[in-house]
TrEMBL record:
Keywords: Membrane, Transmembrane, Transmembrane helix
Transmembrane parts of this sequence: 23-45
Protein name from the UniProt record: Signal transduction family protein (GGDEF domain-containing protein)
SUPFAM superfamilies documented for this protein: EAL domain-like, Nucleotide cyclase
Domain GGDEF: 146-280
Presence of keyword Calcium: no
Domain of life per record: Bacteria
Range of residues in the leader sequence: none
Matches recorded under CDD domains: EAL, GGDEF
């Protein structure tokens, strides 16, 4: 393009030089007219008749007229000379301006490419470029039969820095962390990136061993140990670090990144530090390990099925809602229970995809049942990864709108351990979800290590008493006391108390006397496909609720007791 433009302007200048300009013709015409007029004037003043011969004679005898005969050619030459000079200067100016514009454009394009691939705050590569480079490295590793390692780290308690000292100081901390990481990994990593927020990623190509990745992780930890100076303060930084290796832990870029992220989240639940995804499983678990590779295809090919288990209002003797429980209908192994594949989903980075599939199918069933006259609440278990995803509330709002399900019909169940993993971040996500009108249930209550001071701040709607206490409450005074105290605590906080694992009538009767609100278990109904649930609802309606309007009651707007 540059050569063609230069040739064009050079050709233009040559053409301007070769052609006689109209200004040269104008000068020639004016000079000739002046010569003719001067000759005529000379003849007239001499008193001779105005003829060609007299005009010739005047030219011949008058030296002044002879000198004027040369002027047309002088003017013509001068006009052409000026024209060539101006055209040359104009062409040179155009060429210079074009070259300047071309240089500026190239600089802007280079800067745009740099900004596209780099984080504007830290100067590190951004997430998009990191994933592109990771995909390229994996392709090369596949051909060369080498290994690739990645590290994902997340600063612990960074949200408190922003909250207490402001976003500007938070940016200063991130810049300081970026410099420390650059010094820590400069000899080992081919790429260091800011993945977003306070998360960073490290890509190591041609990894020699897992021990090399562990040493790098320890070096990163050590680089963050010195306090970070912030004005007059010294902040102690810490990080949760996860690492994964190709091809041991995953076969594609996103799965490998999710595996490392899962290890990082697990490290965060232990209070920070470094954790490497374990590549080798015990021999007895080898067959189940292959499920990790098949699970992604199972999600896409509709091998998963959603079973629904009823929840009944003990006091009103009516169906309150259902809980969604995922199953895997494997083409060769048959029905696989969630306890066998959900841990694999967490380790292989597929928990987010699995949770989204369950949410979509659960809301689809909720919409269909409402249209058929069964306005039941749908309870769905929420993973720890979703609670740490700032985009989750927006994704959930989109799904509710897509299936036209009012938010009050959805309850998200969260375990105590999940709530305690990162209290500030989880509280923020839960609050945003609850403000949408979605109800929050604290699952397996009493088995975790939660703090009541933290739990009372949660916008929860109910607590679910763990089945381990319900199972033995008729034979164990301790378990009975725990169940009774949990129900009382829930009511004191304005929450529904839900008992799960009800297996016989005696348990149901005792829970009713204790004031429990909802119950769930095999005594009420086993998890079942949606078609079987429809039959179960008809039977329950036939034997427990003579009046059709008693079951088809819209759930209360209040997220508390109803």
């Amino acid at each position: 393009m540059q050569q063609s433009n230069a040739e064009y302007f050079s050709h233009l200048v040559r053409a301007l030089r070769c052609r006689v300009s109209r200004y040269a013709y104008y000068g020639l015409a004016i000079a000739l007219a002046a010569v003719v007029l001067a000759t005529v004037a000379a003849v007239v003043l001499a008193g001779d008749p105005l003829t060609l011969s007299s005009m010739y004679a005047a030219q011949r005898d008058n030296v002044t007229l002879l000198a004027m005969d040369v002027m047309p050619f002088v003017f013509a030459f001068w006009g052409q000379y000026v024209h060539v000079i101006l055209s040359h200067e104009a062409g040179a100016m155009v060429l210079d301006e074009t070259e300047s514009l071309r240089t500026d454009k190239a600089a802007l394009q280079a800067e745009a490419r740099r900004l596209e691939n780099h984080d504007s705050l830290t100067g590190l590569c951004n997430r998009t470029h990191f994933i592109e480079q990771l995909e390229s490295s994996l392709a090369s590793a596949h051909l060369n039969r080498t290994r690739v390692g990645i590290i994902v780290l997340d600063l612990d308690g960074f949200s408190e820095v922003n909250d207490q000292f402001g976003a500007a100081n938070g940016d200063r901390v991130l810049k300081s962390v970026a410099r420390r990481l650059t010094n820590a990994v400069e000899d080992s990593a081919i790429l260091l990136a800011r993945l977003g927020g306070d998360s960073f990623g490290v890509l190591v190509e041609t990894l020699q061993s897992s021990e090399m990745l562990e040493k790098l992780g320890r070096r990163i930890q050590e680089s963050l140990e010195p306090p970070c100076a912030l004005d007059q303060l010294s902040l102690n930084l810490g990080a949760s670090i996860g690492a994964a290796v190709y091809p041991d832990n995953a076969r594609d870029a996103y799965a490998l990144l999710n595996a490392a992220d899962g290890a990082m989240q697990h490290a965060k639940t232990r209070g920070g530090g470094f954790e490497l995804v374990k590549a080798r499983l015990p021999l007895k678990d080898a067959e189940m390990h292959s499920l990790s590779a098949e699970l992604r295809a199972a999600i896409d090919s509709e091998q998963l099925v959603l079973h629904l288990q009823p929840l009944v209002d003990i006091q009103a003797d009516r169906v309150h809602g259902v809980e969604a429980l995922v199953r895997w209908q494997h083409p060769r192994r048959g029905m696989i229970m969630p306890g066998d594949f959900i841990p694999r989903a967490e380790r292989s980075g597929l928990m987010r995809d699995l949770s989204n599939w369950v949410l979509r199918r659960a809301l689809q069933y909720t919409s269909e049942l409402r249209a058929e006259g069964w306005p039941l609440r749908m309870s769905v278990n929420l993973s720890a990864r979703s609670l740490l995803d700032p985009d989750f509330p927006d994704v959930l709002a989109g799904l509710l709108a897509a299936y036209e399900v009012p938010s009050k019909y959805l309850t998200l169940e969260i375990t105590e351990d999940t709530l305690m993993a990162d209290q500030r971040r989880t509280l923020d996500i839960i609050t945003r979800v609850a403000n949408m009108g979605v109800q929050i249930s604290i699952d397996d209550f009493g088995t975790g290590y939660s703090q009541l001071a933290y739990l009372k701040r949660l916008p929860a709607s109910e607590i679910k008493i763990d089945r381990s206490f319900v199972t033995d409450m008729l034979v164990s005074k301790t378990d009975l006391s725990i169940v009774q105290a949990t129900i009382g605590l829930g009511h004191a906080l304005g929450l529904r108390a839900v008992a799960e694992g009800i297996e016989n009538e005696n348990q149901a009767d005792r829970l009713r006397l204790l004031g429990c609100d909802l119950m769930q278990g095999y005594y009420i109904g086993r998890p079942m496909p949606v078609d079987k649930l429809r039959e179960w609802l008809e039977q329950w309606h036939l034997h427990h609720e003579p009046q059709p309007t008693t079951i088809r009651v819209e759930p209360s707007e209040s997220p508390r007791l109803n």
